[in-house]
Amino acid sequence: MSERDRRVAAALFVITSSVYFATAAGITSSNDGSHYALVRALADEHRFEISDYLSFTEYQDYALIDDLRFSDRPPGTAMLAAPVYALSAFLPKPLAALESKHDAANPRMLYALVIPVAAASATTIILFWILRAHFGLAEWTSVLTTLAFAFGTMTWKYGSLLYSHAASGLCVMLAVALMLRYSHPERRREAAQSKDADNSQPLAGNAPFDYGSKVHRPSAQGAFWLGLLLGASVLMEYTNIIFVAFAGAWCVGQIANLSNGRRRMFLLGLGGLMPAVFLMGYNAANFGSPFALSTFHADTTRWPQNESLFTDFATPLWVGLPAMLFYGYENQGLFWLAPISLLGLFGLKGLWQRSRREFALIAGVFAAMLLLFSTSTTFNPYTNDGRYLTPFLGLWFVAVGFGVGRMVGAIRESPLRWAIIYGLLFISIRNQIMHIAFSWGHDLKPETLTPWAAAPENMIALWNAVFPNALNAPLWWGVLAAGWVARRAWEEQQMGRRRRIESV
Question: The whole model's pTM is what?
């Protein structure tokens, strides 16, 4: 990225993370309660067994083995949050009490939510990097698409909740970003020189980034980190094994032809093996077998679909797919809840023309996961939004970026396209605001509102429902400031080191 792009990315991160942190409502349900129970068990008792914190699961979202109780969620999210929660003993208490459904009296609970806030915000920056630095889309196109992803999709809601989706999305998007660096440079340069490569004529002063002149190849060690990310994604969501299989096949095709291909493949496999070994050890120690997942040890008298893989994914596609994309069976699908995502249909052609290999990776992974979750028996797990698709929305918004680019490029021919872009964006943001307001932990009650649409008391009630943690935003800004100071100190140290080496 250029220096300007880095500054834009930093601004996007600050804005996005501040909004997500202000939206946090604490531990709101049995789902995030199950993750949080494991956080408390790890931080306070240094074990995986959660019997002392079972009330956080509302006595339903847990795995059982004899008299022992465990979280029925993948352990990755809690393992990320537990060190932050442990460290919070030395951090300031919240400035305002948060009316969390669970553990509200514990001031340290809020710091566990730093993980989804940071993970979802980082995911938006990775999307910006992919659009701007990798594909070379215009700056305004990249910024607009990133903001649409951050505030016009379910990413906003799950960037404030201790569900697994934010951490899973970060692993997925970061892995894809590393994989894109393996694209063949000659194909990227050909695409950059093609008159159809950008599918648009950018506005004056909004030129695309010249990505064709510099191609950065990841080092051999980069293959290890890529493998580690792919393996870690399964620790966040068990269903990510489908993503790993798809991504692994793509990597083999790309890495095999590089110099030191065998070494890279070995490091890729080694990186992926480490989380896999941990997960098998976790399963064996807690559930008696390396392949016994916590999901299938839930109380099947309450959750009969968890008896096996085949009962968990048994919904006919003609039932689940329309509900995941549009509306049905009490589910608000992607295009219904986030109409701005419709522009992805308009951008698929541009992504295909830019690079067929990258199209296969990005669109292929999204399509595979969409079809998988459409067959889930719980594609609407009482949240009315098809939330399992959240970690892969960033991939679809790469296509949305190309769609926005085409719309912006033709704006002079048809100014009405501005109305289409911003109309879809504002409707999407409005939908997310209302979706959050009526969600668990936010609990906006329509009967408490006055019949006047613009009544100040209605606006205040909506603000308080959507941003219950707004008064604690200075805590997050303090975290960001400490991170900035640490980064500047590290940069100064590196510069001093280089000067000493040069002087010698």
Answer: 0.91
